[in-house]
UniProtKB/TrEMBL annotation:
<dbReference type="InterPro" id="IPR006183">
    <property type="entry name" value="Pgluconate_DH"/>
</dbReference>
<keyword id="KW-0521">NADP</keyword>
<feature type="domain" description="6-phosphogluconate dehydrogenase C-terminal">
    <location>
        <begin position="181"/>
        <end position="469"/>
    </location>
</feature>
<dbReference type="GO" id="GO:0004616">
    <property type="term" value="F:phosphogluconate dehydrogenase (decarboxylating) activity"/>
</dbReference>
<dbReference type="InterPro" id="IPR013328">
    <property type="entry name" value="6PGD_dom2"/>
</dbReference>
<dbReference type="InterPro" id="IPR006115">
    <property type="entry name" value="6PGDH_NADP-bd"/>
</dbReference>
<protein>
    <recommendedName>
        <fullName>6-phosphogluconate dehydrogenase, decarboxylating</fullName>
        <ecNumber>1.1.1.44</ecNumber>
    </recommendedName>
</protein>
<dbReference type="InterPro" id="IPR006114">
    <property type="entry name" value="6PGDH_C"/>
</dbReference>
<keyword id="KW-0560">Oxidoreductase</keyword>
<dbReference type="InterPro" id="IPR006113">
    <property type="entry name" value="6PGDH_Gnd/GntZ"/>
</dbReference>
<keyword id="KW-0570">Pentose shunt</keyword>
<keyword id="KW-0472">Membrane</keyword>
<comment type="similarity">
    <text>Belongs to the 6-phosphogluconate dehydrogenase family.</text>
</comment>
<comment type="pathway">
    <text>Carbohydrate degradation; pentose phosphate pathway; D-ribulose 5-phosphate from D-glucose 6-phosphate (oxidative stage): step 3/3.</text>
</comment>
<comment type="function">
    <text>Catalyzes the oxidative decarboxylation of 6-phosphogluconate to ribulose 5-phosphate and CO(2), with concomitant reduction of NADP to NADPH.</text>
</comment>
<keyword id="KW-1133">Transmembrane helix</keyword>
<dbReference type="InterPro" id="IPR006184">
    <property type="entry name" value="6PGdom_BS"/>
</dbReference>
Length: 470
């Protein structure tokens, strides 16, 4: 700490801000934090590692005054109005050349607006995705910065120091212009939704085959030691063992089935349609969280449509292997759809998102980290401009190896009436994607029939219209 001035400031000392700031201090930076909730500010210093330089101040102006120039400030407050409120509070306090970072889950269009607004005032504003939850923020998250390259230069050493490391490489890289950091984080969360939905479907498929919580734990634990190794599979294995402290049940069995959400999955779906790019597994995951909220209607429909009629008679050992392969197949499809979306968005929105860096940064620290990301990193090393990871021959052989068991699972789920929409969606996407001539020529004919929309032919170029025989 030189001149008694601090290296880095944090606004918002909740789950993410507090932990990221303490992580920053652990890496030798002097840090100062502010939260509008004074109890959080007051608690900050006590939580710091001995020997680190951490200060909490109850006043934003005092915090800004104590920062080295150019000031480097991050906010980790809820997305939306709180971010604009913080910016307005900072404006009278900062100077030209200072760097303000929004590390929360802001919508990238808000980030674009804020970048422009602050650029006019000479202030650098960066949208930076941070993933890893509470633990990741404290010990090493995956960090997705985008925006002003000059501003990135000011914070690069700090972000590299606090990020997760894989094979000694920091899980942070410059991921593109303007709103790219928040765009990449949004799609990260879309993939997160898809994989979480798939895991929950694998859970129900295994439960219908009679697996107990202990057996589910063992199964997921074993899966996490192989091709499905990932953070989400790892924490799922733990979840099955957690006891409830209010009853004698396992906690999972007394948790309501209405799933919450904060919006990033929905934004991914919405934006995919704007581009357009097909991300049906993500769309399905968003829809399933929505249906999970229809509890009262589902109770009535369960009785009306005889849900208890759903039955499954399978060889348990074979079924576990098939569910494993289906989860592997559909997880690859989920990454493929998200990455295809980033590929398209990078071009359409002129963000220059480097996909090789994106998958590399996701290998550690983030919620969707998995061994598959190492495979994708190698694929992009060979072909950095892959429009879809499914076109890589190495990835194709992995997909093919799991295809027939995925078909078996989807068919059995349909026959047994077990909800497995994300598995079905991944297979439906795959079958369409690998079909050279789809049936959409008929849609073209229908559009021209009723609306004179014209069509293109396979043999001659140009647009054609036919007076169809009525
Ligand atoms: N939790 C997670 O796993 C992850 C969260 N994120 C994103 O990070 C951001 C922060 O999330 P999280 O830490 O979980 O949220 P929290 O609600 O835990 O913390 C946010 C903190 O910001 C404070 N705050 C709000 N407005 C202001 C303001 N104007 N000035 C100063 N402090 C303010 C809040 O105070 P008060 O409570 O009094 O309002 C609260 O203490 C969000 O955008 C979230 O989506 C990203 C990755 C993972
Ligand atoms: O960004 C995150 C993880 O990467 C946050 O935990 C986010 O809140 C998750 O989304 P949702 O609350 O909609 O499930």
């Amino acid at each position: 700490m030189s001149n008694n001035l601090f290296d880095f400031g944090m606004i918002g000392l909740g789950v993410m801000g507090r932990n990221l700031l303490l992580n920053t201090a652990d890496h030798g930076f002097s840090v100062i934090g502010f939260d509008k909730d004074e109890t959080k500010t007051a608690a900050l210093e006590a939580a710091a590692t001995d020997g680190t330089t951490v200060k909490g101040v109850p006043d934003l102006a005092h915090m800004v005054q104590q920062l080295q120039s150019p000031r480097k400030l991050m906010m980790l407050v809820p997305a939306g109005k709180p971010v604009d409120d913080v910016i307005e509070s900072l404006l009278p306090l900062v100077e030209k050349g200072d760097v303000i970072i929004d590390g929360g889950n802001s919508h990238y269009t808000d980030t674009l607006r804020r970048v422009k607004y602050l650029r006019e005032k000479g202030i650098h504003f960066m949208g930076v995705g941070v993933s890893g939850g509470e633990q990741g923020a404290r010990t090493g998250p995956s960090i997705m910065p985008g925006g002003d390259v000059e501003a990135y230069g000011h914070v690069k050493p700090l972000l590299e120091a606090i990020s997760a490391k894989v094979n000694g490489e920091p899980c942070v890289a410059y991921l593109g212009k303007e709103g790219a950091g928040h765009y990449v984080k949004m799609v990260h969360n879309g993939i997160e939704y898809a994989i979480m939905q798939l895991i929950s479907e694998a859970y129900t498929l295994l439960k219908h085959a009679g697996l107990s919580n202990d057996e589910l734990h063992e199964t997921f634990k074993r899966w996490n030691e192989g091709a499905l190794q990932s953070f989400l599979v790892e924490i799922t294995a733990d979840i099955f063992l957690q006891n409830d402290d209010k009853t004698s049940a396992r906690l999972l069995d007394v948790i309501s089935d209405k799933a919450g959400s904060k919006g990033t999955g929905k934004w991914t779906s919405q934006d995919s349609m704007e581009l357009p790019v097909a991300v049906p597994v993500i769309d399905t995951a968003v829809a399933m969280r929505t249906i999970s909220g229809y509890k009262d209607e589902r109770v009535k429909a369960s009785a009306l449509y005889n849900e208890s009629g759903a039955s499954l008679t399978v060889s348990t050992e074979e079924w576990i292997k098939q569910v494993h392969d289906a989860l592997y197949f559909a997880t690859i499809l989920s990454y493929a759809q998200g990455l295809a979306m980033l590929y398209q968005a990078s071009k359409e929105l002129a963000m220059d998102i480097p996909l090789p860096e994106v998958v590399s940064v996701w290998r550690g620290g983030c919620i969707i980290r998995s061994t598959l990301l190492e495979t994708f990193t190698q694929a992009y090393k060979q072909s950095p401009d892959l429009s879809n990871i499914l076109l890589d021959s190495g990835v194709a052989s992995l997909v093919k190896s799991a295809e027939s068991n995925t078909r078996a699972i989807v068919a059995q789920a349909a026959l047994s009436g077990i909800p497995a929409a994300a598995f079905m969606s991944s297979l439906a996407y795959f079958d369409a994607y690998r079909t050279e001539r789809m049936a959409t020529n008929l849609i073209q004919a229908q559009r021209d029939y009723f609306g004179a929309h014209t069509y293109q032919r396979t043999d001659v170029s140009g647009s054609f219209h036919t007076e169809w025989n009525h």
